[in-house]
């Protein structure tokens, strides 16, 4: 079942606006994505090995010297066709690394005997364009250097390029990751953050992957692009708690604006809202400035600002985009080292969607 192929992203933009006390307008585009797949989370992992010492910048110098250029060409073409690709790929990279380590386990298709990672219960949200850009990159590589480049490295390099192409920082990628031999939906739950987690829960989860509080805040800046489905933020905008109808930490006008595309009754489960309401498709630090104004979309986004453990980092990244970029790049390199397999572990997959026969 090819639920992850997102061939014709249907864009249904509805321009809404609301004026706040200061007569500022915000534009919120709602978008419908007709083909979707899922994500997941899971528990207990001993996959926190940091592979920095063994990964290397010139790993493919002999076996595939043009690896970076080949991937870059595919990725830029794909981004022109589907601007949503960058966010989709970035989210997949994150999920891949948090579940079984960065080993492309998220790309494996389910079989009759194995329900794979990407078909975990929380799976209505893994974006088809993200899968597609990785599969296309790998197919291009196979024409020039068959069997050389792992899917895990493809994900890492392609994601780096996409972030940079939509305005974000660029960093050098160390290579030599091997593809995993395990992809199980049951390993997802518990390894991924959820919108109802507390900051303490998020910190422990990130720590368990070798990432600091600072890494976590910087990486959350990924929400400067991409979308969330209504159900992820609806508890904030309807019957929040016994005292407040709308989450009081949320800009009230913003919350009301979100109600029309996300009605309580007859909700269309495919409707999504931009994660970054002020510059949704550009990788910048507006996400952090939004948090200072109560314009965070997810409860966990907004809590990064309100919680004293993370507040200071939010402020410094809101103030200076270069600081955000530096921390983000450093944290992405660390994220790309989580649980990597090297040497003779795992394999180099021929087709990223399937274990080698
Ligand atoms: C800190 C805890 C985090 C939580 C609770 C969280 C939660 C979510 C949720 C609920 C969505 C919406 C999914 C949907 O409805 O389709 C989302 C989207 C996204 N997340 Fe996160 N996330 C977190 C951290 C991260 C990190 C660390 C990254 C990457 C480094 C990331 C990258 C993204 C991207 C790019 C999207 C947009 C995907 C798209 O438009 O297709 N998130 N996140
Ligand atoms: C690998 O290739 C890069 C780029 O061409 C070059 O800068 C580097 O020196 C090479 N490394 C080795 C060990 O040949
Ligand atoms: C997850 O994907 C499977 C197919 O792989 C599908 O049957 C199921 O309905 C999906 N679940 C959700 C919540 O979308
Ligand atoms: C968070 O939500 C999930 C379902 O989305 C639920 O299973 C879980 O119990 C909730 N966790 C907390 C801490 O409320
Ligand atoms: C409702 O939420 C607010 C803000 O999170 C909190 O201060 C308040 O105590 C909550 N009220 C109830 C009755 O739970």
From TrEMBL:
Under catalytic activity, the entry for this protein gives: 2 a phenolic donor + H2O2 = 2 a phenolic radical donor + 2 H2O
Q: Which PROSITE patterns match?
A: PEROXIDASE_1, PEROXIDASE_2, PEROXIDASE_4
Q: Which GO terms describe its molecular function?
A: heme binding; lactoperoxidase activity; metal ion binding
InterPro entries according to UniProt: Haem_peroxidase (IPR002016), Haem_peroxidase_sf (IPR010255), Peroxidase_pln (IPR000823), Peroxidases_AS (IPR019794), Peroxidases_heam-ligand_BS (IPR019793), Secretory_peroxidase (IPR033905)
Q: Does the keyword Oxidoreductase apply?
A: yes
Look up keyword Transcription regulation and say if it applies.
no
Q: What class of enzyme is it?
A: oxidoreductase
In this chain, Ca(2+) 2 is annotated as bound at: 224, 276, 284
Localization in the cell: Secreted
Q: Which residues bind Ca(2+) 1?
A: 96, 99, 101, 103, 105, 117
Residues that, per the record, bind substrate? 193
Task: Give the GO terms filed under biological process for this record.
Answer: hydrogen peroxide catabolic process; response to oxidative stress
Q: What is its EC number?
A: 1.11.1.7
Q: Which family does it belong to?
A: Belongs to the peroxidase family. Ascorbate peroxidase subfamily. Belongs to the peroxidase family. Classical plant (class III) peroxidase subfamily.
What is the protein name stated in its UniProt record?
Peroxidase
